[in-house]
Amino acid sequence: MRVLVTGAHGQLGHDVTTVCSAAGDDVIAVGRERLDVTDRALVHAALAEVRPDAVINCAAWTAVDACEADPDRAMLANALSVRWLREACDIAAAHLVTVSTDYVFDGSKADPYSEWDTPAPASVYGRSKLAGEREAGPDAAVVRTSWVCGEHGANMVATVLRLLPERDTLSFVDDQRGCPTFTADLAPALRRLAVERRSGVHHLTNGGAVSWYEFVRSIVAAAGRDPDMVQPIRTVDLDPPRPAPRPANSVLDNAVWRLAGLPPLRHHLEPLHELVRRLTEA
Prior knowledge:
- By secondary structure, the chain is of the alpha/beta class.
- Helix content is 40%, strand content 16%.
- The protein is globular.
């Protein structure tokens, strides 16, 4: 497969590039400096030149609170860019796989969200990503994921490991629940969607729903420290408060993947321990 990976310098794009290369694909991996996906002319020119079989779009503006202050930039980066990619993919006969988010839901549902639940984003970021899903069109694969962590980027695991030498206690919210997802497992799933040219919305997360408080306790324990150093707080007690609302329930039911008979991603504790080892041994 000849595959174009956008956002290749991010933590997910990095691992998608690695996975595709290891599988023997002809990979063209581009970051923003080589392909600004918000520029329609550049996108069309790139795909006309590369003529990929598939595009795995990992490019996005994921600064949730910054999006709240600049909705036009969020819509350009997360929605219109997908329109440009879809247009160019249609011309090149390339299959588009694009990544979305749990933030397309407001988090008010008590149970996990399936692919057929009606989105209701509460933040600018969520609205921009939902718009991007719609711009992808019916033939693309849209992957909603959550709480993404990888070796090559900023994420909760890296943050906690950085804070451990500096703090005696840590405080994290216990009223937001989701499924931590690791790029080491998500990246091969994205490639599979590209190879098999699957379409429609897919929820893809590692197994095991937890609160941020519980997840951080697991990170601390994996690093060999006492998890009791982590204290629970409520979202309303965050100081300073976050500009963008967070969904209280971000748990995604991977129903389409499961009902299609595809193997589930591992429980998150397994890749968590692998990632902590890699980051602490680096």
